[in-house]
Amino acid sequence: MSTDPLIITAAICGAEVTREMSPAVPYTAEELAGEAARCFAEGARVIHLHVRRPDGTPTQDREVFREAIEAIGRQVPEAIIQVSTGGAVGMTVEERTQPLELNPEFCTLSTGTVNFGDDVFMNSFPMIEAIADKARQRGIRMEMEIFDAGFVDNVLLLVKKGVLEPPLHFDFVLGVPGGMTGTVDRLDFLLTTIPEGSTWMVAGVGRFELPLAREAIARGGQVRVGLEDNLFISKGVLAQGSWELVKAVAGYAAEAGRPLATPEQAREILAIPTR
Fold this sequence. Notes:
The protein is α/β, with parallel strands linked by helices. The protein has a single domain, classed as Aldolase class I (TIM Barrel), CATH 3.20.20.70. Helices cover about 35% and strands about 20% of the residues. It has nine helices and 14 strands. The chain has an eight-stranded parallel β-barrel with strand order 1-2-5-6-9-10-11-12, surrounded by eight helices. Strand 5, helix 3 and strand 6 (about 105-110) form a beta-alpha-beta unit. The relative contact order is 0.19. The mean pLDDT is about 95.
């Protein structure tokens, strides 16, 4: 059982969930900032950020991201803001990389194409390389988003090509319909595929979220939770917000004897460059 500090990432909004699904889904910059502050208070150190238009439509517009980042920064300046470069299904690379122009500390990099419900989340090698190049040129730390086992192989190929550089940080997004399921044997297999010296996290989708959080804590990994991935705190019971899911994971960590990382520890563990 690991006693290393635990980093909790709060995925507070996403691109797919709506207020029709849960009234707790934040849309505006101030709503996102309020939810980020609640999640930080419960122990989250990374805020995984998507943004919306006022009507809830997902967007990667740079200025909408700027408003949200500034609002979060006013309320929780210590938080690590991780911008999504995944955006929403069907967006171009140019759309998806707009928030990188704001020079955030941290961003995601999806490293393969996957069925995503009834859609296809497209990430060809030229697309992956274009996003990675833009992040690297700006000194932005990248998190590898892994929806299926071949995504890890793609990362290793990109390392050989010089597109990506260790140390690598992986996020295993398990349970997306069309991707790898969220069972423990899948997690354990993926852990055998990543390079020594890498850090990792689990983001279980739907009913897999909280069980996989416990498994990650036990194995020394990090955890992502939030309304982007799962709307329920228990079967049939909507979470009051991402903060309630963060609070549950913090409780699991306390039971397992893992302290919650400070913002400084989180930056060190994730190898986020000092600015």
